[in-house]
# Entry
Amino acid sequence: MTRAAEPFSARLARRVNGVIAVLTLAFLAAPVLAIVPLSFSAGSFLTYPLPGLSLRWYSDFLSSPLWTRALGTSLLLGAGTTLAATALGTLAALGLANSRLRLRGVLMALIVSPMIVPVVVLAVGMTFVFSAAGLTSSLLGLLVAHTTLAVPFVVITVSATLAGFDPALLRAAASLGAPPLVAFRRVVLPLIAPGVLSGAVFAFATSFDEVVLALFLSGPAQMTLPKQMFLSLRETISPTLLAAAVLMTLVSTSLLLAIELLRRRNARLRGTER
Amino acid sequence: MAADEAAALGRRLVRAERRARLRAFALVAPLLGFLAFTFAAPLASMLWRAVADPELGAALPRTGPLLRAWDGRGMPGETIFATAAAELAHAAQDKAAGLLAKRLNYEEPGYRTLILKTANRLSPPFADGPRAAMEAIDPRWGERPIWLAMRRAAAPVTGFYLLAALDLQQGEDGIAAVPAERAIFRIVLWRTLGIAAATTAACLALGFPVALLLARAPPRRAGLLMLLVLLPFWTPLLVRIAAWIVLLQEHGVINDTLTGIGLTGQPLPLLYSRSAVLIAMTHVLLPYMILPLYSVMRAIPPVYLRAAASLGAPPFAAFRRVFLPQCLPGIGAGSLLVFILAIGYYITPALVGGAADQMISSQIAFYTIGTANWGMAAALSAVLLIATLILYAAYARLAGTGGLRLG
# Structure
């Protein structure tokens, strides 16, 4: 069916759909794009037209101990969460990939369930348990909490790469004389590396963007970047906060880019590029 | 000989299988142990606290069993008065008395001061007997209601908080609604469902055309447009909320533009309103609608529509009767996913909504961090958790448990 043969009504419907879709995409992208120039404003009013361009709010951000300490805490917490979630999640995914394991479906459902439970509900339960265990108002407690939220992402991404893994490769490695650990390091790990890495990126992003658990579980000494933003937004919104927001977005979009590249590499490795 | 060897081989095979199974389990075990502490224990503790009623037992350990044995008719006997008076006087310096006072205050405002006052002033021995001593401090001790409230609080488990989460209470003759002026939660629950439903509808209305456009676009352009969907998906939540505040606030971008071109005389109150909550939540949740819709639409072979057309169906009929029915699983999965996520929302309404736009999660936060009424926080959490799980069961049926896509 060529376009010319299409009746007018169908073409009109297509157009209307296209217009709504493009407007929706603009609605999705515009708000964040709108604040980027404002963070470079020379003035302190958060509106257009800009009185001039400057980096003063960025230098304000970098010279404010409040914000830099929050950034440091968030980076540290993100790194710790990434390490813990990636280690626990990759091991579990390797175990779950073994078809001899009983109750695999149940275990998998159990492991991904932190994604389903509303974070506030989990935060309440963690408040009860962690305060009894002395883990509230501590960075370790927050790390444990963030790892709980992040670990399902690692299990899912690593399991996805393992699904395409051919166990015959392991037998081939063994028959060529490779001990199990060597076979794992030189055969399995390179093949699942994209999944492990994108899981790690998801884990970092989860922690870097997390605010509910931080609000419930942490004390004033564990001020993360999102928590600092939440508390500032409750009072007043400053250009410095926008500079922080743009920097956070930069980190997150680089992560998205990393994931996309990993996905393509993985697809290429498995010969399923789409 | 051969049979022996075969049996030995079989045994070795079984052993090897068991070893492999154990090894697989050993790999999963660290994570299971971790989640037992950080996920299962918190949820179990939350559910337990939603029904636990430990305060009276802790403050008045001997009075509790006596109250439970009392049939609740008439006034309690002298033994109960004597035990309660002795234990209350004894508990005066104790933290437990404060907790009991707080607990009983939930039953009836004013009981807090009654308990604390009585505990402080009672000093044995009681010249005219314990009952007279208590009634001298407050005449309410001579009436039934306080004793009935204490009897209700004497059981180790209570439905009190769960009932209260639905604005119900256990009266003398069964469960009844609390007086209208004290009802707070039902309105919040309905509001939560309303906001979630409106957000879901908006996401469907806006997400469907986008998914359709993506599904019909040539692969390269579809990939590019998909990036436009994923980019906001990856922008941190607080950045997106900050952006909406900048746009919507009194002297924000939108108001300045509107007044600048003379459309409105004075700034419109856009921020801290229900519409701000709906706009921001739709913005945040839209990708969760687009992604499942897109993946379902892409799987519908275009041949079907061409077949419908060749059989004489006009384009609208082909769309409505061939394409749309095949989209239904995607519509269902996307809508349920958005609805499930929306009913748990806390941060977005807290920052862009007004006092009348707060949802159940904000009540939960209030009772956990604010007033530390953990029983109430737990009961509201239990209500939210149960609602989520029921919806998730429906979602899993539609999309499969692996259906949570990662973008």
Chain B has three domains: 1-42, 55-155, 185-403.
